[in-house]
């Protein structure tokens, strides 16, 4: 199963890209562990996760070809 990650703000700086494809990730909790293992600096950043344009608050099952956005804190007017 392939999932597309869209990255924003400070997270782009840490991961070095604006998009990423990951395989074999079944849910958002597993995705968080995967990202923290590869990019430990993410542990210092609070971020939200959106699955198919819906911000989630709890572990969510990921389906083939879904789009997951990793959203750092933002501010503005």
UniProtKB/TrEMBL annotation:
Segments crossing the lipid bilayer: none
Record-given protein name: MoaD/ThiS family protein
Native source species: Arachidicoccus soli
Lineage, top ranks: Bacteria, Pseudomonadati, Bacteroidota, Chitinophagia, Chitinophagales
């Amino acid at each position: 199963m392939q999932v597309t990650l869209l990255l924003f703000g400070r997270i782009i700086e840490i991961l070095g890209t604006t998009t990423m494809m990951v395989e074999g990730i079944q849910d958002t909790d597993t995705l968080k562990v995967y990202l923290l293992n590869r990019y430990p600096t993410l542990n210092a950043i609070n971020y939200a996760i959106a699955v198919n344009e819906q911000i989630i608050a709890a572990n969510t099952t990921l389906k083939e070809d879904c789009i997951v956005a990793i959203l750092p804190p933002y501010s503005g007017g």
